[in-house]
Amino acid sequence: MITLTAPRKQTLLAMILSIIAGLSTGFTAEELAGEWDMKIETDGPPRLATLTFTKNSDGSFSGHWGSTELSKVTLEENKLTFVQTRRRRDREFSQTFTGTLKDGKLEGVLASEQSENKMTGARPVPKSPVLGHWDVRYQVRDRDIEARLRVSEKKDGSLHADWKQERGEHTITRVHFEEGQLTLDRTVKYEDNEFDVTHSGKIEGHKLAGTVITSFGEIEMKGARHGTELIGTWELTTTTDRGPRTRRLKVYSDLTGRYETFGRELPVELKLNEKKVSFDTEMRFGDRSFEFGLRGELEAGNKLTGELVTSRGSTAFTGVKLVKAKPLAAVGTWEFTRETNNGVRTSTLIIKDDKSGSYSFRDQDIALDTLSLEGDQVAFKVTLKFSDREIPLAFKGTVDESTLKGTWTTPRGEREATGKRKP
After folding, report:
1. Sign of dihedral through CA atoms 82, 88, 89, 92?
2. Residue 290 clears pLDDT 90, i.e. is over it
3. Closest to 197 (Cα-Cα) out of 130, 132, 128, 145
4. What share of the chain in percent tops pLDDT 90?
5. Which end of the chain has a smaller Cβ tally under 10 Å, C or N?
6. Fold of 332-422
7. Which residues of 54-73 are buried (b: 16+ CB within 10 A; e: fewer)?
């Protein structure tokens, strides 16, 4: 038996903790894939950027810095590197990132010929669904009430709300949101009268439904999020004497957003009046700064046109909303069971994110033929072999959370089937 002295115990403990810490700096492909909200430290305010990484079917990685494609994206053990190249007029500027992921944070150094800057980031934090502008409607006696409720978040994370209505002065004295339920108290001053109103409603997506409690009793209330047609990511294109140039505008559910230009993202707060869209912000380059703004109008077909305005003049732009592809809901492993005269039969369907797959039945493992995936829909064909016989089968189904319901078409006709997702 070996007895360790106190100093040796401390040394051994330090070595173990060092090993554990070293292991924790490594990260897997799954941990890297997706979106990262980044900050680059500078002499002034930090610059903002969005990184997006995708794992390719061959195991390699590709990535984007905003709308700019990255090159040389390499993930080896605990180190991530990539190169970002930007063009400004006739010159190219490249910078290289080297960093690691630890405790859910991506940290490293962004280096170029001119400078080195610390760069840190984490997964984007989803905004609370209650934040935003809500068009609220209800009826008191024979009078229709229409109002605009705006819910925002303070720096300490608490909620703030204001209420705008054609008549009276309105003050929100309490606002609370938990598990999808919004409650707020409102004090109304109209002419010589003052009274209190309580609102309670459930938020689902862009809809608000609930009740208003007044002196006249409980009244049904309905609401919808204002500006849903503007929410999303827009690609804005301008035409210059050096050819077209694209920028991106990301609009969140509360009509705040990020405007990407010159490899950085500027926080903006958008105004929407009917179809008119605008924002104003300030851009800084070293010790210089100038004002910048957008004036546009929403058009049918997810289009936005207008002008980008600076102190030097304005430039016309055309914008289209980037439609995010629906996730392939059928990707995963599914188990089908069926009662037969010979007992329970089990088969397994595997669908991979590279749009390949296989179907296993008894001792056969068959590659899927003509596999089609679109949103929550899946279809494919397989051919089973028994001795010298071949039996063609076709499947069409729909994914509903952890269930895949569909129909098998066989030489003997059709039969329904239900598969359960395996963890």
Report:
1. negative
2. no
3. 145
4. 56
5. N
6. Lipocalin (2.40.128)
7. ebeeeeebebbbbebebeeb
Q: Where in the chain is the domain with CATH 2.40.128.120?
A: 26-122, 132-225, 232-322, 332-422
Dig out the tokens for 189 from the structure: 């001053």
Distance, CA of 343 to CA of 219 (rounded, Å): 58
What's residue 283's pLDDT? 79
- Owner of token pair 């040796």: 8
| 380, 369 contact by CB (below 8 A) | yes
Residue 318 tokens read as: 């055309």
SS (H, E, C) 33-95: CEEEEEEECCCCCCEEEEEEEEECCCCCEEEEECCEECEEEEEECCEEEEEEEEEECCEEEEE
Question: Roughly how many angstroms between the first and final C-alpha of the chain, as a whole number?
Answer: 46
Tokens of 221: 């209330």
Q: Rounded distance, CA 199 to CA 208, Å?
A: 11
The CATH number of 26-122, from 3.40.50.10320, 3.40.1160.10, 1.10.357.10, 2.40.128.120, is 2.40.128.120
- The partner residues of 187 in beta bridges, in order of sequence, read 171, 196
Q: In Å, how far are 4, 14, 15, 175 from 9, measured between CA atoms?
A: 6, 9, 10, 55
Say whether pLDDT at 403 is over 70.
yes
Is residue 168 within 8 Å of residue 189, measured between CB atoms? yes
pLDDT at 359 over 80: yes
Measured torsion, CA atoms of residues 122, 126, 128, 129, in degrees rounded to the nearest 10: 180
Q: How far apart are CA 300 and CA 318, in angstroms?
A: 13
Domain 232-322 belongs in CATH node 2.40.128.120: yes
- The partner residues of 272 in beta bridges, in order of sequence, read 277
CATH class name, domain 132-225: mainly beta
13/7 Cα distance (integer angstroms): 10
CA-closest candidate to residue 36, choices 27, 49, 23, 25 = 49
CA-nearest of 258, 251, 292 to 272 is 251
Rounded-to-integer distance, Cα 132 and Cα 150, Å: 6
